[in-house]
Amino acid sequence: MRITFRAVRGVFQEDEELLSAGFDSGADWEEKGGHFLSLQRSAEGLRGDLEDWEADGLYVELDDQVYSGYGVVRECRLSRGMLSVDLETPIEDAEEIEGFDVELAIDDKSFDALKAGLPRIIEGSLAQLVVVE
Question: Distance (Å, rounded) from C-alpha 111 to C-alpha 19?
């Protein structure tokens, strides 16, 4: 099964510890059966400090930490209209989910930030990133 939703917000954020890309179906995503998807990784200078349970450091979360995992992403494909994420192994407590298809209904500024930031999150992990121009 694949989780499919339309993201009206997409954001790339970074600080000295974390790089994060987040997508959600709106401000009230929790109340109306919407979704939130996040891809996170330690900032580039901190990646040598991973614990064994963090695998390659690439973290994915759907809606809540209950549905999350490290090192489970096989491939991400990004185009202007879609982000598709294929899982190598299931995320915790959601073994039936094989991946995510997120329609990107976001503004150009948000997309450009995600297009520049997502490679930084994926780089050095076991996952592959394909950017379709």
Answer: 16
Contact between 43 and 16 (Cβ < 8 Å): yes
Both tokens assigned to 25: 């179906």
| Pair type for strands 99-104 and 2-7 | parallel
Q: State how far the Cα of 102 lies from the Cα of 93, in Å rounded to an integer.
A: 21
* 71-92 residue pLDDT tens: 899 999 999 999 999 999 998 8
- Let me know if 101 is exposed, middle or buried by CB neighbors in 10 A (0-12, 13-18, 19+): middle
Q: How far apart are CA 7 and CA 107, in angstroms?
A: 11
Task: Report yes or no: 124 and 20 within 8 Å, Cβ to Cβ.
Answer: no
Query: Tokens 């592959």 label which residue?
Result: 128
Sheet holding 73-79, edge to edge: 2-7, 99-104, 82-87, 73-79, 128-131
Global confidence as pTM: 0.88
